Amino acid sequence: MPLLNLRDVAEHTSLRPGLLYRSAQPQGLSAADEALIARLRLIADLRGEAERAVHDWPAELTTVARLGLDETGSPASLPHDLRLGELYVMLLDHRTAWFAQVIAAIADGLPALVHCAAGKDRTGIVVALILDLLGIGHDDIVRDYALTGEHLAAVTAGLVLPDDVPAQLLQAPPAAMRTLLAALAERGGAEKLLTAHGLGAEHVARLRAALVTS
Q1: pLDDT tens digits, one per residue of 54-67
Q2: Backbone angles phi, psi at 207, to 5 degrees
Q3: Which residues fall within 8 angstroms of residue 197, CB to CB, at 6 or more apart?
Q4: Can you tell me the distance from the alpha carbon of 191 to that of 132, in angstroms, rounded to the nearest whole number?
Q5: Rounded to an integer, what distance in angstroms lies between the CA atom of residue 208 and that of residue 212?
Q6: What angle (nearest 5°) sits at the alpha carbon of residue 116, between those of residues 6 and 72?
Q7: Domains of the chain as residue ranges with CATH
Q8: pLDDT by residue (tens digit) across 65-116?
């Protein structure tokens, strides 16, 4: 089985290709996946320890950075009575320093792959923050996020999910990302928010130098 929900973020943006990838967790690797992984400097794994118990990277792979907070960083652990976009805003507000830390690691580790379990929620927020920071329009950010919906059936088939997992966590509705981006704009945008919580100016400069084409 190939690495699911895998894509170069540049495919649907104006960014320089071949430097920033996103995916779901490694349920299997194709020959093409192995070739890609061999040229990466960083695999940013956003899962908690328990999430890695079933599907994990080979132990000898030295480019993997275990950046997950633990399962409390997973949307599945958050209140079930919130809409998905509201869950994203809650994560943004309560885990801002963590998002800044993850993005700093990515800035220092390009070319990089970032993933969580499904490659949708934590990964989607990280990618959205990077894209906003780099000046990518919100329509393009939403478009990239929504592509995950095409892969969710295959991805969730390999996940160990609680019996009461909310249906919204098995979807990637554009409205959820638009809610997050609206909240991000209210907070002054990704650069202002993240640099106030630990992201260095050198990391911002490094991301722009590597990924922005003009």
Answers
A1: 788 988 999 999 99
A2: -60, -45
A3: 96, 97, 99, 100
A4: 8
A5: 5
A6: 165
A7: 7-211 (3.90.190.10)
A8: 999 986 555 666 666 667 899 999 999 999 999 999 999 999 999 999 999 9
